[in-house]
Amino acid sequence: MSKARFSLGHSLERTRHRLALLKRHITERPAIRVGILIVVIALIAAMALHFCERTPNKDIEPENWPYASYLGTCQQVAILLFSGFDVDPKPRYLVSWLLMFFCLFLGICLLALITADLASLLISAAMNNRGRRRVRLKNHVVLCGWHHSSKAIVEQLTSRDNKPRKKIVVIDQEAEDLRLVHPDTDYVRGDPTEQESLALASTDRADIAIIPLDYSFSEDILDSRITLTTMAVKGINPNIYTCVELLQPANRQHIERTEADEVLCVGEMSQMMLGQAAVAHGVSRLYEEVLTFNRGSEIHRVPLPAVLAGQSFRWLLNEMNSQLSCVLLSVERNKKVFTNPQGEFILEQGDHLFVLAERPPRRLARLAPK
Questions:
Q1: Distance (Å, rounded) from C-alpha 153 to C-alpha 159?
Q2: What are residue 303's DSSP bridge partners?
Q3: Structural domains of the chain, count
Q4: In this predicted model, what pLDDT tens digit does every residue of 298-331 receive, in sequence order?
Q5: CATH number of 331's domain
Q6: In a domain? residue 204
Q7: What DSSP letter does each residue of 313-366 carry, written as one string?
Q8: Statement to judge: residues 150 and 228 lie in one domain
């Protein structure tokens, strides 16, 4: 019995609490407050109209004169207030006409207020749903987080010289605040370490995942956060190509266990670039120019045509420089890079070339000797 009473009391208390929350939600809305104020003003105007028109003409029976009672006057004002229809019978005095026009104006204001509040509710509902719907894409790029470097990454990936162009999906907790107006860019609101957010971004059908450092976290957990994100991405799509940014060189061994495809260690890269800049002055400006899209030449990775297999590196270097105005830098073979190889380096089928050019070189097969 006591248990049943406790359950009933708990249900009543919960219902009372919900009703109190609903009441507070309704009364705290500015539109509700202004609407109540408009209705109160209309009731005051109806009272004034009643005092002006309460005595009917001699040829009209009192029961047929709606302004004879305050309730009847309120009914006439309500017709104006909520519908704007013409009232009958019409008032007789100028002051009454002014009061009626004032009530008509209040009705217009009330209608506009209701429309604006309803529109704001619909927009809020739409905004709350933005970023939480599955992005229907395939072979796209998933950018895990919107951080200090994300804008530059998006600009490079959406560059007009970057072909073929890919769609980009950004996953971030504050995605609804991002001003992503590029037609090739979409977003998902969520945490890139969570499977649900990755699923909404169609990570299982993506080609590339970029995982930059998020400096909103402390340096102690930056690399751990990157490792968790990489594990989550690889867990939902083992074949996706992951480009990962790392802070500490000592943590490279941990991120490599996640089978990340490319790891760029900020600390390690900056150390090597500083050392080279001290020896070869101006090398940092060279790196900046080469790695920036839409400015001069960039490094492009292109497959070696089968007809060029068996040719030497030096021969292809001369042919590409003389006929295509580009420079052959390196050859990638079995995930190893050979930069300016010395001696008689023979190209093999399946190699990829790193070329310095303003645009990716096309139709390399034309260079094959006749």
A1: 10
A2: 352
A3: 3
A4: 888 889 998 999 899 999 999 888 888 889 999 9
A5: 3.30.70.1450
A6: yes
A7: HHHHHHHHHHHHS-EEEEEEETTEEEES--S--B--TT-EEEEEESS----GGG
A8: yes
Asked whether residue 290 is assigned to any structural domain, the reply reads no
**Which residues does 140 contact at the CB level (< 8 Å), separation at least 6?**
166, 167, 168, 169, 202, 205, 206, 207, 208
How far apart CA 311 and CA 65 sit, in angstroms, is 107
Q: Which residues of the chain have pLDDT under 50?
A: 1, 3
Same-domain check for residues 62 and 120: yes
Question: pTM (2 decimals)?
Answer: 0.58
Residue 165 belongs to what domain range?
A: 141-270
Residue 305 lies in a domain: yes
* Burial class of residue 265, CB neighbours in 10 A (0-12, 13-18, 19+): buried
Q: Residues 75, 77, 80, 83: what is their CA dihedral angle, to the nearest 10 degrees? A: -40
Looking at residue 205, which CATH number applies to its domain? 3.40.50.720
DSSP, collapsed to helix, strand or coil, labels residue 222 as: helix
d(CA 13, CA 8): 9
Q: Looking at residue 237, what is its pLDDT? A: 92
User: CA-CA distance, 356 to 370, in Å (whole number)?
Assistant: 26
**Is the separation of the CB atoms in 202 and 138 below 8 Å?**
yes
Residues 198, 200, 201, 202, Cα dihedral to 10°: 90
What does residue 71 show for φ and ψ, rounded to 5 degrees? Answer: -65, -40
